[in-house]
Protein backbone atom coordinates (compact mmCIF):
# COMPACT_ATOMS: atom_id res chain seq x y z
CA UNK A 1 0.00 0.00 0.00
CA UNK A 2 1.65 3.21 -1.21
CA UNK A 3 0.16 5.54 1.38
CA UNK A 4 1.69 8.64 2.96
CA UNK A 5 2.18 8.90 6.70
CA UNK A 6 -0.50 11.58 6.92
CA UNK A 7 -2.97 9.36 5.06
CA UNK A 8 -2.18 6.39 7.29
CA UNK A 9 -2.69 8.51 10.39
CA UNK A 10 -6.06 9.65 9.09
CA UNK A 11 -7.09 6.03 8.53
CA UNK A 12 -5.79 5.18 11.99
CA UNK A 13 -7.89 7.90 13.60
CA UNK A 14 -10.99 6.80 11.71
CA UNK A 15 -10.75 3.12 12.56
CA UNK A 16 -8.54 2.39 15.59
CA UNK A 17 -9.19 2.90 19.29
CA UNK A 18 -5.85 3.02 21.08
CA UNK A 19 -4.91 2.24 24.68
CA UNK A 20 -5.40 5.39 26.79
CA UNK A 21 -7.45 6.82 23.93
CA UNK A 22 -8.44 10.50 24.01
CA UNK A 23 -9.43 12.82 21.18
CA UNK A 24 -6.42 14.84 20.04
CA UNK A 25 -3.92 12.67 21.87
CA UNK A 26 -2.96 10.92 18.68
CA UNK A 27 -2.64 13.95 16.38
CA UNK A 28 1.16 13.85 16.26
CA UNK A 29 1.57 10.09 16.54
CA UNK A 30 4.55 8.30 15.09
CA UNK A 31 3.74 5.34 12.84
CA UNK A 32 6.43 2.72 13.28
CA UNK A 33 7.55 0.88 10.16
CA UNK A 34 10.55 -1.15 11.29
CA UNK A 35 13.04 -1.65 14.07
CA UNK A 36 16.48 -3.05 14.74
CA UNK A 37 18.35 -3.41 18.01
CA UNK A 38 17.44 -0.42 20.17
CA UNK A 39 16.22 1.63 17.22
CA UNK A 40 12.69 2.35 15.96
CA UNK A 41 12.12 3.73 12.45
CA UNK A 42 8.95 5.60 11.54
CA UNK A 43 7.22 5.70 8.16
CA UNK A 44 9.11 8.90 7.28
CA UNK A 45 12.41 7.08 7.75
CA UNK A 46 13.39 8.93 10.94
CA UNK A 47 15.20 6.85 13.56
CA UNK A 48 14.63 7.00 17.33
CA UNK A 49 16.26 5.35 20.32
CA UNK A 50 13.59 3.16 21.92
CA UNK A 51 13.97 4.60 25.42
CA UNK A 52 11.33 2.37 27.01
CA UNK A 53 11.90 -0.87 25.08
CA UNK A 54 8.41 -0.57 23.62
CA UNK A 55 6.47 -0.71 26.88
CA UNK A 56 9.28 -1.97 29.15
CA UNK A 57 9.18 -5.34 27.37
CA UNK A 58 11.46 -5.47 24.34
CA UNK A 59 14.64 -6.27 26.25
CA UNK A 60 16.15 -8.29 23.38
CA UNK A 61 15.70 -5.45 20.91
CA UNK A 62 13.82 -5.38 17.65
CA UNK A 63 15.78 -7.92 15.63
CA UNK A 64 16.63 -10.92 17.81
CA UNK A 65 16.98 -13.63 15.17
CA UNK A 66 16.77 -16.53 17.62
CA UNK A 67 13.30 -15.39 18.71
CA UNK A 68 12.17 -14.93 15.10
CA UNK A 69 13.47 -18.38 14.20
CA UNK A 70 11.76 -19.99 17.21
CA UNK A 71 8.44 -18.45 16.19
CA UNK A 72 8.78 -19.47 12.54
CA UNK A 73 9.70 -23.05 13.39
CA UNK A 74 6.78 -23.42 15.78
CA UNK A 75 4.31 -21.86 13.34
CA UNK A 76 5.34 -24.47 10.80
CA UNK A 77 5.00 -27.32 13.29
CA UNK A 78 2.03 -26.52 15.58
CA UNK A 79 0.58 -22.99 15.52
CA UNK A 80 -2.05 -23.63 18.20
CA UNK A 81 -3.25 -26.26 20.64
CA UNK A 82 -5.50 -26.04 23.68
CA UNK A 83 -3.84 -25.87 27.06
CA UNK A 84 -6.93 -26.97 28.98
CA UNK A 85 -6.63 -29.90 31.41
CA UNK A 86 -6.26 -33.09 29.37
CA UNK A 87 -4.24 -31.32 26.68
CA UNK A 88 -0.70 -29.94 26.52
CA UNK A 89 2.14 -29.28 24.07
CA UNK A 90 5.85 -29.91 24.10
CA UNK A 91 6.88 -26.26 24.02
CA UNK A 92 4.73 -25.35 27.05
CA UNK A 93 6.15 -28.30 28.98
CA UNK A 94 9.69 -27.27 28.06
CA UNK A 95 8.97 -23.69 29.14
CA UNK A 96 7.54 -24.71 32.51
CA UNK A 97 10.71 -26.67 33.25
CA UNK A 98 12.92 -23.74 32.22
CA UNK A 99 10.90 -21.31 34.35
CA UNK A 100 11.26 -23.62 37.35
CA UNK A 101 15.02 -23.67 36.82
CA UNK A 102 15.50 -19.88 36.67
CA UNK A 103 12.78 -18.75 39.11
CA UNK A 104 12.80 -18.47 42.90
CA UNK A 105 13.63 -21.87 44.46
CA UNK A 106 10.23 -22.37 46.09
CA UNK A 107 8.31 -21.65 42.86
CA UNK A 108 8.07 -24.61 40.51
CA UNK A 109 4.52 -24.60 39.06
CA UNK A 110 3.23 -22.16 36.46
CA UNK A 111 -0.02 -21.03 34.88
CA UNK A 112 0.42 -19.29 31.52
CA UNK A 113 -1.54 -16.31 30.20
CA UNK A 114 -1.54 -13.82 27.32
CA UNK A 115 -0.04 -10.94 29.31
CA UNK A 116 0.41 -9.11 32.58
CA UNK A 117 -3.17 -8.03 33.23
CA UNK A 118 -4.34 -11.63 32.88
CA UNK A 119 -1.51 -12.63 35.20
CA UNK A 120 -2.81 -10.24 37.88
CA UNK A 121 -6.34 -11.59 37.60
CA UNK A 122 -4.92 -15.12 37.75
CA UNK A 123 -2.96 -14.32 40.91
CA UNK A 124 -6.06 -12.87 42.57
CA UNK A 125 -8.12 -15.94 41.69
CA UNK A 126 -5.31 -18.26 42.75
CA UNK A 127 -5.01 -16.59 46.15
CA UNK A 128 -8.75 -16.85 46.79
CA UNK A 129 -8.76 -20.47 45.59
CA UNK A 130 -5.84 -21.33 47.87
CA UNK A 131 -7.40 -19.84 50.98
CA UNK A 132 -10.72 -21.57 50.30
CA UNK A 133 -8.88 -24.88 50.04
CA UNK A 134 -7.22 -24.08 53.37
CA UNK A 135 -10.63 -23.56 54.98
CA UNK A 136 -10.21 -19.76 55.25
CA UNK A 137 -12.81 -18.60 52.75
CA UNK A 138 -13.08 -15.11 54.31
CA UNK A 139 -9.55 -14.30 53.12
CA UNK A 140 -10.46 -12.56 49.85
CA UNK A 141 -9.14 -8.98 50.11
CA UNK A 142 -6.27 -7.57 48.08
CA UNK A 143 -3.88 -4.89 49.32
CA UNK A 144 -1.61 -3.08 46.88
CA UNK A 145 0.25 0.24 46.76
CA UNK A 146 -0.33 3.69 45.41
CA UNK A 147 1.66 4.29 42.21
CA UNK A 148 1.63 0.54 41.61
CA UNK A 149 0.62 -0.69 38.16
CA UNK A 150 -0.79 -4.19 37.74
CA UNK A 151 -2.73 -3.90 34.48
CA UNK A 152 -6.18 -2.68 33.50
CA UNK A 153 -8.35 -5.75 33.18
CA UNK A 154 -11.07 -5.10 35.72
CA UNK A 155 -9.64 -6.79 38.80
CA UNK A 156 -6.12 -5.70 37.84
CA UNK A 157 -7.36 -2.11 37.50
CA UNK A 158 -8.73 -2.30 41.04
CA UNK A 159 -5.29 -3.35 42.27
CA UNK A 160 -3.51 -0.68 40.23
CA UNK A 161 -2.76 2.30 42.47
CA UNK A 162 -2.89 5.04 39.84
CA UNK A 163 -6.27 6.75 40.28
CA UNK A 164 -6.34 8.16 36.76
CA UNK A 165 -7.32 4.66 35.58
CA UNK A 166 -10.40 4.43 37.84
CA UNK A 167 -13.08 7.14 37.35
CA UNK A 168 -14.61 6.15 34.02
CA UNK A 169 -15.07 2.52 35.11
CA UNK A 170 -16.20 2.81 38.71
CA UNK A 171 -17.58 1.47 40.95
CA UNK A 172 -14.54 -0.69 41.57
CA UNK A 173 -14.74 -4.19 42.94
CA UNK A 174 -15.04 -4.20 46.76
CA UNK A 175 -12.18 -5.66 48.75
CA UNK A 176 -9.28 -3.76 47.18
CA UNK A 177 -7.27 -1.18 49.15
CA UNK A 178 -3.96 0.63 48.81
CA UNK A 179 -1.12 1.68 51.07
CA UNK A 180 1.46 4.41 50.34
CA UNK A 181 4.39 3.71 48.06
CA UNK A 182 7.78 3.44 49.83
CA UNK A 183 8.97 6.19 47.36
CA UNK A 184 12.31 7.04 48.99
CA UNK A 185 12.33 10.55 47.48
CA UNK A 186 8.93 11.50 48.90
CA UNK A 187 7.71 9.06 51.57
CA UNK A 188 7.42 10.79 54.96
CA UNK A 189 7.42 8.52 57.99
CA UNK A 190 5.55 9.40 61.16
CA UNK A 191 7.71 6.99 63.16
CA UNK A 192 11.17 8.36 64.03
CA UNK A 193 12.17 5.11 65.71
CA UNK A 194 12.52 3.04 62.54
CA UNK A 195 14.10 3.50 59.14
CA UNK A 196 12.14 4.96 56.24
CA UNK A 197 11.95 1.55 54.57
CA UNK A 198 10.61 -0.24 57.64
CA UNK A 199 8.15 2.57 58.28
CA UNK A 200 6.85 2.29 54.71
CA UNK A 201 6.57 -1.48 55.07
CA UNK A 202 4.71 -1.09 58.34
CA UNK A 203 1.95 0.65 56.38
CA UNK A 204 1.03 -2.88 55.29
CA UNK A 205 0.69 -4.12 58.86
CA UNK A 206 -1.54 -1.14 59.70
CA UNK A 207 -3.81 -1.86 56.75
CA UNK A 208 -4.01 -5.61 57.46
CA UNK A 209 -5.09 -4.83 61.02
CA UNK A 210 -7.65 -2.29 59.79
CA UNK A 211 -9.12 -4.77 57.31
CA UNK A 212 -8.87 -7.75 59.67
CA UNK A 213 -6.12 -10.32 59.06
CA UNK A 214 -8.72 -13.05 58.65
CA UNK A 215 -10.05 -11.24 55.54
CA UNK A 216 -6.81 -10.41 53.67
CA UNK A 217 -5.74 -12.86 50.98
CA UNK A 218 -2.72 -11.19 49.36
CA UNK A 219 -0.43 -8.21 49.08
CA UNK A 220 0.71 -7.44 45.54
CA UNK A 221 3.73 -5.25 44.77
CA UNK A 222 6.20 -4.54 41.99
CA UNK A 223 9.76 -4.96 43.35
CA UNK A 224 10.51 -1.70 41.53
CA UNK A 225 7.45 0.37 40.75
CA UNK A 226 7.68 0.99 37.01
CA UNK A 227 4.86 2.96 35.40
CA UNK A 228 4.41 4.88 38.66
CA UNK A 229 7.76 6.59 38.07
CA UNK A 230 10.58 3.99 38.43
CA UNK A 231 10.66 3.75 42.22
CA UNK A 232 13.15 1.27 43.74
CA UNK A 233 12.43 0.61 47.43
CA UNK A 234 14.72 0.96 50.41
CA UNK A 235 16.91 -2.10 51.04
CA UNK A 236 15.06 -3.02 54.26
CA UNK A 237 11.56 -2.62 52.77
CA UNK A 238 10.83 -6.06 51.30
CA UNK A 239 12.45 -8.09 54.11
CA UNK A 240 10.02 -6.39 56.50
CA UNK A 241 7.13 -6.91 54.05
CA UNK A 242 7.93 -10.65 54.02
CA UNK A 243 7.86 -10.75 57.83
CA UNK A 244 4.47 -9.03 57.93
CA UNK A 245 2.96 -11.33 55.32
CA UNK A 246 4.20 -14.38 57.22
CA UNK A 247 2.91 -13.07 60.54
CA UNK A 248 -0.63 -12.46 59.29
CA UNK A 249 -0.88 -15.32 56.76
CA UNK A 250 -1.06 -13.04 53.72
CA UNK A 251 0.31 -14.21 50.38
CA UNK A 252 3.11 -12.03 48.99
CA UNK A 253 2.62 -11.59 45.25
CA UNK A 254 5.59 -10.16 43.34
CA UNK A 255 4.51 -8.43 40.14
CA UNK A 256 7.68 -8.91 38.10
CA UNK A 257 6.07 -8.10 34.76
CA UNK A 258 8.59 -5.27 34.26
CA UNK A 259 11.42 -6.41 36.52
CA UNK A 260 11.69 -10.08 35.48
CA UNK A 261 14.27 -11.79 33.28
CA UNK A 262 17.27 -9.62 34.02
CA UNK A 263 15.97 -6.05 33.81
CA UNK A 264 17.17 -4.98 37.30
CA UNK A 265 20.52 -6.78 37.28
CA UNK A 266 19.12 -10.01 38.73
CA UNK A 267 17.04 -12.65 36.99
CA UNK A 268 14.12 -11.61 39.25
CA UNK A 269 14.18 -8.46 41.33
CA UNK A 270 13.33 -9.66 44.84
CA UNK A 271 16.66 -11.51 44.69
CA UNK A 272 18.26 -8.13 45.45
CA UNK A 273 16.88 -8.34 48.98
CA UNK A 274 16.96 -12.10 49.61
CA UNK A 275 13.16 -12.39 49.61
CA UNK A 276 10.99 -15.05 47.97
CA UNK A 277 7.33 -14.43 47.06
CA UNK A 278 4.45 -16.88 47.31
CA UNK A 279 3.26 -16.01 43.80
CA UNK A 280 5.20 -14.35 41.00
CA UNK A 281 3.67 -12.62 37.98
CA UNK A 282 5.58 -12.28 34.72
CA UNK A 283 4.99 -11.14 31.13
CA UNK A 284 6.67 -8.54 28.87
CA UNK A 285 10.32 -9.66 28.69
CA UNK A 286 9.45 -13.37 28.82
CA UNK A 287 9.00 -13.09 25.03
CA UNK A 288 10.57 -9.62 24.61
CA UNK A 289 7.22 -8.53 23.21
CA UNK A 290 7.50 -10.85 20.20
CA UNK A 291 4.26 -12.55 21.27
CA UNK A 292 1.59 -11.59 23.86
CA UNK A 293 2.47 -13.86 26.76
CA UNK A 294 2.71 -14.00 30.54
CA UNK A 295 1.86 -16.08 33.56
CA UNK A 296 2.11 -16.72 37.27
CA UNK A 297 4.27 -19.07 39.27
CA UNK A 298 3.11 -20.42 42.61
CA UNK A 299 4.98 -21.71 45.65
CA UNK A 300 5.36 -25.39 46.38
CA UNK A 301 2.94 -24.91 49.30
CA UNK A 302 0.22 -23.56 47.01
CA UNK A 303 0.92 -26.26 44.42
CA UNK A 304 0.73 -29.07 46.96
CA UNK A 305 -2.52 -27.68 48.35
CA UNK A 306 -3.98 -27.70 44.82
CA UNK A 307 -2.78 -31.25 44.25
CA UNK A 308 -4.42 -32.48 47.43
CA UNK A 309 -7.83 -31.09 46.45
CA UNK A 310 -10.54 -32.47 44.18
CA UNK A 311 -11.96 -28.94 43.69
CA UNK A 312 -10.86 -27.72 40.22
CA UNK A 313 -9.22 -24.37 39.61
CA UNK A 314 -12.04 -23.06 37.41
CA UNK A 315 -9.98 -20.40 35.66
CA UNK A 316 -9.20 -20.66 31.96
CA UNK A 317 -7.96 -18.77 28.91
CA UNK A 318 -8.21 -19.99 25.32
CA UNK A 319 -4.58 -19.01 24.77
CA UNK A 320 -3.09 -20.40 27.98
CA UNK A 321 0.10 -22.38 27.23
CA UNK A 322 0.04 -21.17 23.61
CA UNK A 323 2.71 -23.13 21.70
CA UNK A 324 4.02 -20.10 19.76
CA UNK A 325 4.37 -17.98 22.90
CA UNK A 326 5.92 -20.91 24.73
CA UNK A 327 8.45 -21.50 21.94
CA UNK A 328 9.50 -17.85 21.89
CA UNK A 329 9.70 -17.76 25.69
CA UNK A 330 11.95 -20.82 25.68
CA UNK A 331 14.24 -19.12 23.16
CA UNK A 332 14.14 -15.92 25.19
CA UNK A 333 15.24 -17.63 28.40
CA UNK A 334 18.11 -19.19 26.45
CA UNK A 335 19.06 -15.72 25.18
CA UNK A 336 18.83 -14.12 28.63
CA UNK A 337 21.20 -16.76 29.99
CA UNK A 338 23.63 -17.01 27.07
CA UNK A 339 23.99 -13.23 26.74
CA UNK A 340 23.87 -12.71 30.55
CA UNK A 341 21.14 -10.08 30.48
CA UNK A 342 21.30 -9.52 34.26
CA UNK A 343 24.96 -8.50 34.12
CA UNK A 344 24.40 -6.41 31.01
CA UNK A 345 21.52 -4.59 32.70
CA UNK A 346 23.56 -3.95 35.84
CA UNK A 347 26.53 -2.55 33.93
CA UNK A 348 24.59 -0.53 31.38
CA UNK A 349 22.19 0.74 34.02
CA UNK A 350 25.11 2.03 36.07
CA UNK A 351 26.50 3.77 32.99
CA UNK A 352 23.12 5.36 32.31
CA UNK A 353 22.69 6.64 35.87
CA UNK A 354 26.30 7.89 36.03
CA UNK A 355 25.85 9.67 32.68
CA UNK A 356 22.62 11.31 33.79
CA UNK A 357 24.11 12.39 37.11
CA UNK A 358 27.00 14.00 35.28
CA UNK A 359 24.86 15.58 32.54
CA UNK A 360 21.87 16.93 34.48
CA UNK A 361 22.32 15.95 38.14
CA UNK A 362 23.26 19.52 39.13
CA UNK A 363 20.37 21.10 37.24
CA UNK A 364 18.21 23.07 39.70
CA UNK A 365 15.03 21.42 38.41
CA UNK A 366 16.29 17.83 38.48
CA UNK A 367 15.21 16.61 41.89
CA UNK A 368 16.03 12.93 41.72
CA UNK A 369 17.77 10.46 39.44
CA UNK A 370 17.03 6.89 40.51
CA UNK A 371 16.96 3.35 39.26
CA UNK A 372 17.97 -0.27 39.57
CA UNK A 373 19.65 -2.10 36.74
CA UNK A 374 18.48 -0.78 33.39
CA UNK A 375 15.45 0.96 34.89
CA UNK A 376 15.81 4.67 35.50
CA UNK A 377 13.63 7.65 36.40
CA UNK A 378 14.45 11.36 36.31
CA UNK A 379 12.12 13.47 38.46
CA UNK A 380 11.82 17.16 37.59
CA UNK A 381 10.77 19.61 40.32
CA UNK A 382 10.05 23.31 40.61
CA UNK A 383 12.26 23.73 43.69
CA UNK A 384 15.05 21.27 44.29
CA UNK A 385 15.67 22.40 47.87
CA UNK A 386 12.21 21.47 49.15
CA UNK A 387 11.18 18.99 46.43
CA UNK A 388 8.25 21.20 45.42
CA UNK A 389 6.67 19.79 42.26
CA UNK A 390 5.69 21.83 39.25
CA UNK A 391 2.06 22.73 38.79
CA UNK A 392 0.58 19.88 36.70
CA UNK A 393 -0.89 22.53 34.39
CA UNK A 394 2.67 23.43 33.35
CA UNK A 395 3.03 19.98 31.77
CA UNK A 396 6.80 20.06 32.22
CA UNK A 397 7.14 16.31 31.78
CA UNK A 398 5.19 16.35 28.52
CA UNK A 399 7.28 19.22 27.20
CA UNK A 400 10.54 17.42 27.97
CA UNK A 401 9.12 14.23 26.45
CA UNK A 402 8.27 16.02 23.20
CA UNK A 403 11.58 17.85 23.08
CA UNK A 404 13.38 14.50 23.42
CA UNK A 405 11.19 12.91 20.72
CA UNK A 406 12.09 15.70 18.31
CA UNK A 407 15.77 14.88 18.94
CA UNK A 408 15.32 11.15 18.39
CA UNK A 409 14.55 9.64 21.82
CA UNK A 410 11.14 8.01 22.30
CA UNK A 411 9.91 7.15 25.80
CA UNK A 412 7.14 7.95 28.31
CA UNK A 413 6.60 10.09 31.40
CA UNK A 414 4.55 9.79 34.59
CA UNK A 415 3.74 13.38 35.37
CA UNK A 416 7.12 15.08 35.63
CA UNK A 417 9.09 11.85 35.93
CA UNK A 418 10.88 10.85 32.72
CA UNK A 419 11.08 7.04 32.55
CA UNK A 420 13.88 5.10 30.88
CA UNK A 421 14.14 1.35 30.30
CA UNK A 422 15.80 0.80 26.92
CA UNK A 423 16.43 -2.67 25.50
CA UNK A 424 19.09 -4.53 27.43
CA UNK A 425 20.97 -4.99 24.14
CA UNK A 426 21.43 -1.20 23.82
CA UNK A 427 25.01 -0.22 22.96
CA UNK A 428 27.07 1.98 25.27
CA UNK A 429 27.33 4.59 22.51
CA UNK A 430 23.53 4.72 22.35
CA UNK A 431 23.36 5.22 26.13
CA UNK A 432 25.71 8.16 25.72
CA UNK A 433 23.58 9.61 22.90
CA UNK A 434 20.40 9.05 24.90
CA UNK A 435 21.91 11.02 27.79
CA UNK A 436 22.92 13.87 25.49
CA UNK A 437 19.41 14.05 24.06
CA UNK A 438 17.75 14.18 27.47
CA UNK A 439 20.20 16.88 28.60
CA UNK A 440 19.40 18.96 25.51
CA UNK A 441 15.65 18.45 26.02
CA UNK A 442 15.95 19.47 29.69
CA UNK A 443 17.79 22.67 28.82
CA UNK A 444 15.40 23.41 25.98
CA UNK A 445 12.40 23.30 28.33
CA UNK A 446 13.88 24.48 31.65
CA UNK A 447 16.96 26.45 30.69
CA UNK A 448 20.49 25.89 31.89
CA UNK A 449 19.61 26.77 35.48
Overview in brief:
It is built from 13 helices and 15 strands. With 449 residues, it is an alpha/beta fold.
Please give a handful of descriptors for the protein shown:
globular, Aspartate Aminotransferase, domain 2, alpha/beta, Aspartate Aminotransferase, domain 1, seven-stranded mixed β-sheet, 449 residues
Please describe what this structure looks like.
- It is built from 13 helices and 15 strands.
- It has 449 residues and is of the alpha/beta class.
- It folds into two domains: 31-51 and 340-446, Aspartate Aminotransferase, domain 1; 66-338, Aspartate Aminotransferase, domain 2, CATH 3.40.640.10.
- It has a seven-stranded mixed sheet with strand order 4-10-9-8-7-5-6, sandwiched between helices. The protein has a four-stranded mixed sheet with strand order 1-2-3-13.
- Strand 14 and strand 15 (417-420) form a beta hairpin.
- The mean pLDDT is 97.
Secondary-structure blueprint of this entry?
Blueprint: H1 5-15, E1 32-36, E2 39-42, E3 47-50, H2 53-56, H3 65-77, H4 90-102, E4 107-113, H5 116-133, E5 141-145, H6 154-159, E6 176-179, H7 196-211, E7 216-221, H8 237-247, E8 251-255, E9 279-282, E10 294-299, H9 300-307, H10 323-338, H11 341-360, E11 366-371, E12 376-380, H12 396-406, E13 409-410, E14 412-414, E15 417-420, H13 428-446
Parallel strand pairs: 3-13, 5-6, 5-7, 7-8, 8-9
Antiparallel strand pairs: 1-2, 2-3, 4-10, 9-10, 11-12, 12-15, 14-15
Q: Given the C-alpha coordinates, what overall shape results?
A: globular
Output the CATH class name of the largest domain.
Answer: Alpha Beta
- How much helicity do the residues have? 25-40%
CATH architecture identity of the largest domain: 3-Layer(aba) Sandwich
CATH topology (level 3) name of the largest domain:
Aspartate Aminotransferase, domain 2
Rg value:
22 Å
| N to C succession of SSEs | HEEEHHHEHEHEHEHEEEHHHEEHEEEH
Q: Note the total helix count.
A: 13
Strand content: 15-25%
**How many strand units?**
15
Span from first to last CA? 49 Å
Overall number of structural domains: 2
Counting helices, strands and paired strands, the structural category is: alpha/beta
Largest sheet properties: 7 strands, mixed
How do the strands of the widest beta sheet line up side by side?
A: 4-10-9-8-7-5-6
Amino acid sequence: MNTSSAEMLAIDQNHLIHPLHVQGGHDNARIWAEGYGSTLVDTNGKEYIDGLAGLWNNTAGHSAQSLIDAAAAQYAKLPYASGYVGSSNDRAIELAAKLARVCYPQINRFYLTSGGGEATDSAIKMSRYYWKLKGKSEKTKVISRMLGYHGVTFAAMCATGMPVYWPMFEPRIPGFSHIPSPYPYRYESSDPNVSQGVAAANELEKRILEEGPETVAMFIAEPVQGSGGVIPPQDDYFPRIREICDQYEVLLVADEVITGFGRTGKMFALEHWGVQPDIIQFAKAVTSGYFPFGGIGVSDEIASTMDASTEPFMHAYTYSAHPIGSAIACAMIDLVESEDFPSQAAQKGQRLQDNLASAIGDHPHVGDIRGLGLLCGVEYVKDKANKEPFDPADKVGDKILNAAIERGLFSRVRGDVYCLAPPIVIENSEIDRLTAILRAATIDVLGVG
